[in-house]
Amino acid sequence: MIINEMDASKMYLPKVQQKFAGQEVSADDTKFVDTVKSLMSDVNNQQKDSAASIEKLIKGEPVDLHDVMITAEKAKTSFQLLMELRNKGLDLYREVLRIQV
User: Fold this and answer.
1) Residue 40 neighbours by CB distance under 10 Å
2) Closest CA to 20 of 34, 10, 33
3) 0.70 exceeded by the pTM?
4) How many CB atoms lie within 10 A of CB 71?
């Protein structure tokens, strides 16, 4: 027989907070920051790889034009994604500032 225990003090909290109420905050509180940093470093590495492959093409070294174009488009797309995430974050921040208390 399963009995659902309800704590009256936790009844009106969101489900996530009900689940973790009373527990210590783990070391994962910087997880979002680490995710953003890793995303930025990945975009930076893709930009560097793209620049290196374009430089090889310009110098006349044996590289496939297809590979150069693919790395350039990957770098461009990932940079656009990063910029859109930044823009959405700024929009969210501005929206929070407009909230009247």
Assistant:
1) 13
2) 10
3) no
4) 19
